[in-house]
Design goal:
The protein has 386 residues and is α+β, with helices and mostly antiparallel strands. It has two domains: 8-46 and 250-385, no CATH class; 52-239, no CATH class. It has 15 helices and nine strands. It has helices at 8-13, 15-45, 47-52, 64-67, 77-96, 133-139, 160-165, 176-179, 221-227, 241-284, 287-295, 300-338, 350-366, 368-377, 381-385, and strands at residues 57-61, 101-115, 120-126, 143-147, 155-159, 184-190, 196-198, 208-214, 237-239. The strands form two sheets. Strands 3-2-8-1-9 form a five-stranded antiparallel β-sheet. A hairpin with a 4-residue loop joins strand 2 and strand 3. The longest helix has 44 residues, at 241-284. It is elongated. Residues 382-386 have low confidence and may be disordered.
């Protein structure tokens, strides 16, 4: 027979059935894409903290063990503490003499929190005397954008994005859930390094650290400390480029990828099962139609080709509609929710689009089973009469 079977005729005459399948596919595409985008807010937002801030500053909390100090070697605790202080001062002088380090000092720190849609990252920020803060801001390439410089005790300058993230403003308490009303925000900063700095308020802090102002040539502080005779153990804390990257790869990026993989697997399994059931019912309702086509001379391969063209049209329409909805929904979330919280994200994620399309191809492959079974089970009118 010269004329081929049209895949469009059934779609045109069964808009509700086909529309339901297209809508289901589009909704799944949109859901997977938007969830992946929201999860990736963490990886995109935390990049500055992880990769930019450690280029300019590192925080060292060296234990007595790191200095080789044992309490039993001293007559009392006071003597041991004096030895610890001496070692700290010696290390600071060694760091200052190192190429690539512009300054080092022992000071109180706070922990700043940066919250994403899913997850949170915390990092140390220094508390300095008011007269020292301008030099620190210069080193961190930070500019005051509103408010004033700290003058009294417990006054904090906060990066603009972090202020949005905390839903706070100038005059509010800084991280009241952790520090109560001890610290007060007096100004905002704009910096490529997520800078926060303030003045001490008594001894409310997150510990005492050696703050090392440096350049990008010093990335691995643990290696540098080893060269200076200090071997880092679990008792010590080194917040530098290496430790921050390790945290990012395992606890942020790794976690996000695992969650996305889990969600994608669950949704794929559910979608495959649902579409399989729907398609089996869809094919059963058309047995007489296929029987008629074969009875008037169309081959099984011609009927199979028609079914596959219909399937391709349905899945393509679902993919296009889902992609448009996912990108549109992602843009709206970025514009009205993510930016408003001082966060970053990628609206266009080609890798997720390709991954979802690959899922569609996989499901189409699974659907070959009921399609081939249905076609092979069809009997022509002649065969029925016999």
């Amino acid at each position: 027979m010269k004329s081929g079977l049209s895949a469009w005729n059934f779609i045109k005459n069964n808009k509700k059935t086909v529309g339901a399948l297209v809508l289901a596919l589009a909704m799944v595409f949109t859901a997977i894409y938007v969830i992946a985008m929201l999860l990736n807010v963490s990886t995109e937002s935390f990049r500055t903290v992880v990769f930019e801030m450690p280029k300019k500053v590192a925080f060292l909390d060296i234990s007595a063990k790191g200095y080789g100090i044992r309490a039993e070697d001293y007559p009392d605790l006071e003597a041991a503490n004096a030895a610890y202080d001496k070692k700290t001062l010696e290390l600071i002088e060694q760091l200052k003499a190192t190429d690539g380090i512009s300054d080092a000092y022992f000071t109180q720190v706070l922990v700043c929190q940066y919250k994403s849609v899913f997850g949170m990252i915390g990092y140390e920020v220094p508390l300095l005397d008011a007269e020292r803060i301008p030099d620190y801001l210069t080193h961190m390439e930070a500019q005051l954008t509103a408010g004033r410089m700290p003058e009294g005790e417990g006054e904090i300058l906060v990066e603009e994005a972090l202020l949005k993230n905390a839903d706070a403003q100038i005059g509010d308490a800084y991280m009241p859930f952790a520090y109560g009303d001890t610290f007060r925000i007096v100004g905002t900063l704009r910096s490529p390094h997520m800078t926060v700095v303030g003045t001490p308020a008594g001894f409310t802090n997150h510990g005492w650290f050696i703050v090392t102002e440096k350049d990008e040539s010093i990335y691995d502080m643990t290696a540098l400390l080893k060269d200076l005779g200090i071997t880092i153990s679990e008792a010590d804390r080194v917040e530098d480029g290496v430790s921050m990257k390790s945290f990012y790869e395992t606890e942020v990026k790794g976690m996000v990828e695992r969650v996305i993989d889990t969600i994608h697997t669950i949704v794929t399994a559910f979608l495959a099962f649902t579409i399989l059931i729907a398609y089996i019912s869809y094919l059963r309702n058309r047995v007489n139609e296929y029987c008629l086509y074969m009875s008037i001379g169309y081959s099984r391969s011609a009927v199979y080709g028609m079914i596959m063209r219909e399937m391709l049209m349905i899945f393509s329409a679902g993919a296009v509609l889902g992609m448009l909805a996912g990108l549109g929904g992602g843009w709206m979330l970025h514009r009205f929710m993510i930016e408003a919280k001082g966060l970053n994200c990628r609206v266009l994620m080609p890798e997720q689009i390709f991954r979802i399309l690959a899922t569609y191809v996989l499901i189409m492959g699974i659907l070959q089973i009921p399609v081939l079974w249905s076609i092979n089970a069809v009997k022509t009118i002649d065969a029925i009469e016999e």
